[in-house]
Here is the input.
Amino acid sequence: MTDTTEQREARHPSRLLAALRKIGATLGQIAFTMVGLLFVTFVIGRVMPIDPVIAVVGERATQAQYQAAYEAMGLDQPLFVQFIQYIWDVMRGDFGMSLLNARPVAEDIARVFPATLELATLGTIIGVAIGVPLGVLAAVKRGTWIDQTARVVALIGYSMPIFWLGLVGLLIFYGILGWVGGPGRVGIFYVDVVPSVTGMILVDSALDGNWTVFRNALSHIVLPASLLGYYSLAYISRMTRSFMLEQLSSEYIITARVKGLSERAVIWRHAFRNIRVQLITVVALSYAGLLEGSVLTEIIFAWPGIGSYITTALLSADMNAVLGGTVVVGLVFVCLNVFSDLLYKFLDPRAE
Amino acid sequence: MNITRRLMLGAATGLALAATSLGAVAQTPDDMLVIANRIDDITTLDPAQSFEFAGADVIRNVYGKLVNFDPADLGAGYQPDLAESWEVSEDGRTITFTMRPGMTFHSGNPVRAEDAAWSLQRAVKLDKTPSFILTQFGFTPENVEEMIRAEDDKVIITTDQKYAPSFVLNALTATIGAIVDKETVMQHEVEGDMGNEWLKTNSAGSYAYRVANWKPNESVTLEVYEDFYKGAPEMKRVIVRHIQESATQRLLLERGDIDAARNLNPEDIAGIQDAEGIEIDDILRGRLMYISLNQNHPQLSDPRVVEAIKHLIDYEGMQNSFLNGQYTIHQNFLPQTYLGAVDENPFEMNVERARELLDEAGIDELTLEVGVREAQERLEIAQSLQNTFAQAGINLEITVGTGQQILSRYRARDLPIYLGAWGPDYPDPHTNASTFAYNPDNSEDAQLTGILAWRNAWPAEGFTERVDAAATETDTATRERMYQEIQADFREEAPFVIMFQQIEQLARKDNVENLTLGEAITAAAYWPVTK
Amino acid sequence: MSQFDVTGTRARSGWHDWLMTETPRSRRQARIGSFYQGWLTLRRNPMAMFGLSILVFLVLLAIFAPLLAPKDPYAQDLGARLLPLGSEGYPLGSDSLGRDILSRLIYGARITLYIVALVALIAPIVGLFVGTVAGYAGGWVDTILMRITDIFLAFPRLVLALAFVAALGAGIENAIIAISLTAWPPYARIARAETLTIRKADYIAAVRLQGAGPLRIITKHIWPLCISSLIVRVTLDMAGIILAAAGLGFLGLGAQPPSPEWGAMISEGRRFILDHWWVATMPGLAIFIVSLAFNLLGDGMRDVLDPKDAGK
Here is the structure.
């Protein structure tokens, strides 16, 4: 793949054309990945021994009622026909109806994805705000107690079963201390108070100027976001440390030091500048991880996000919902990947 | 370096500040009722299709029925509701209802006999899962317009033969008996679906509340209907929120973020019952926990093995430990409080007796599979069974799956042993009799998958006719005795081991009053609630 | 190396010299020697050694479980349920069915090790195979294999695992397969990247000139070189694997009752978290300690094997 593209590029004199080709190839790659993703999901859905019809018609249904529902759901068609039909619908932006609750899947996803987006974004912000300085500090103070503490803090983050930490956190900070809001995105009497523009309650309430709701939503999100933030902090700080060490031992930093630049300038203006791009890749990866929807965190905090949406759908074989959710999550993942690739090429002169 | 340190400090203090300053928790407003419950089973809010507990709670508060239960006196049985009165014809086949005058739907349309007849016809014609509650009286999509018809302010229902009037009227109190606003529903008809698609997420009723919003797996919001004929309810808004975890529900209740929690486990109930401002109500429900033994299985079809298994269950131990307060021992298919219910529970754990029976049957060792749904209390029951069965040399293998996985196999007669729950569909003894002790055709081809006896390949010989006879008996005292006798024989002979009846423990704030859940016979009522 | 001078038997110093020689006489000696040097470096990292000793302890615990466990991990006693820590006969308390938590934890170590060992075998081998073949073959083989890798990478991981378990049926073996299926793509990428740098090396060309086929080149010459970076990655991933298995157990899709799998134990105990916190906390701590041990060891090994981080 890479070889052929390069060869073709070399033959073409026009750089614009080459760029267009590259974009085309990237888009093709994304499309291929997405179709593959859907196909695998589709096959899994069909071999799964969970019967969606039972979920719809209930335990008491007679065989005739069962059969009627089976046909109404289009399950009597050959698998291949169902798949083609599905791809065709998705291309027109139609994700179909949830088999279980007969609501449009697109509508459901538009409701649950912003919830995950809000949580993941805040989690990543926390992770970056603490993780990056921690990583830099650990690299600079390498081998000291600061480095060791940073290492332990990060490794504990890696090692903690998040569902357990979530339960304990909820018990302490909500149940005993009452510092934060409870499970759910917002207190019950604030539900649907502000008009939904983005679907993210923090943003919506800020746009609406309703600070009571904003504060309440913030109190609910703080704990789950901190947990996710801790998790991404662990990853980000370790990677930052590793990147920084590489920089700090390189020739030009030694030269800069020899030239008598202040330590601060050496670290931030030189070393840190050079790891920005790598760091963005790492952050994008960790962000993508959180956007998948941290299923267990969402369950513990009754957070109506995409992770628990897909899981619930999966366990009741609501394949339209599972496929829809997978498309969205997969697309986000692929796009973030492509984005960080492009950024890499764009910002890092060495990548050329 | 300083910058780093300052950054970190800043981030840390910012976070701590954000956390501490946000604490204040408000009480729920005085005119709003907030309940935590598991409502992920709701798949539709159309009364002709809805068939789950959480859906029944919603529909009872949104739609009126011809006859209904009074939450203040559930023991009184069915009472007039949208029908003011009724008369049973002499041949016992026709019931004529007179509609209550001056009632309106939420839309402002009047509630007419026409709406009532059409609603019942609609349920028969749509032929969704619960339709058997009506069609068992001989209605079919073809004949229903003659059998159920409206004349002026009267609804006339004619059944195919004589039934106990209490049986017919009890069936009409079920969710499927809800009366919908024909004009409004038909405005939303799509491709001849009689508004089925639209009613899944919307409502067109005449009762205390209308559905403001249903977010699957999240919440149902009900909004008051001020012109409700029994008087405007005090709670202007009712929100039922889906909270999966018992611990989470308890925390929410303790912090005052909800008014009532419906799924607290025995340990959380024990932990919260002495808390100030919280009351626990014990409410006997209709749900039974049972195991069934597939008669296609070579060993399980031996009556001695069936009896042995009935002696290998630690009823007492389970009731007094992990089921404490939430299930009570009950070994008969009619739940307590039902007509004909009996409270004789003769079976006890007796390993020697079981071992004797197994020896008589010539069984030394036996390995059996039990299918269980992924739910904690059922898993615990299964593990307790595994433990006690092993004492008599029966090795029980537990297969855990989602509800649908296990049910699919159960319906296909594929499970040797099934461990599950059964809730009555309408408050008449026939509802359970006609599934546990009734099997008109045990052949594989009959595919009577809705009937428990068929699923276990049990022909129910001698029972089927007696159940039919009891359903048509018009004398209530005789009818009651018939069910008692059926159950006495069923308990000994049937390959069903009924173990427990459910007690729901409702934890509520002590200022919340008159919240009834409908006990064993119906669903929750929110309109009488005060705070 | 002072400790060797102190112990200083002839045999050991002989081994030591053989291992530390600057002029190894065989490739095997060189490889073993470099591992030995890595080990010496690792020994100087107290945290890594701490992690390693926990893992050794875990292995011993698993092997001698029947001797160490005070009770039968499956024996129920409904009269002695939810006993607190330090109860007589139940040092870590008892669970909802009156089973001894300590005994269950000890037997659970076997399951944890079983999961970890199998996943650690399956995923890297699949990844190694896919990655090296793709990297060595290049062209359309590379394109197809890497696109498939991308597809699996783009999947939400727990969802993919869930889907497979749901498809295959709940159970410990299926959970292992499902976790392996989600874990292999990163290994494939690493292996491919390594292969790409190695395949153009002079000595590979030399081997090829001697008439070695692609199969031989991949298995004999490329795989050994990819191993060390994979080992580091696997060790660092172990914690993730344990947590994923526990997550499946937590959702009821991993080990089936009455198996004392730690994740399933948390799942059972989480109902009592408010009043009987130890029931869920003890297995939670066990998972935490073991995955921390793997992380400490992996982190130390990375310092040793990854030249970027290596102490100079």
Confidence is low (pLDDT under 50) at residues 1-25 of chain B. DSSP finds 19 helices and 17 strands in chain B.
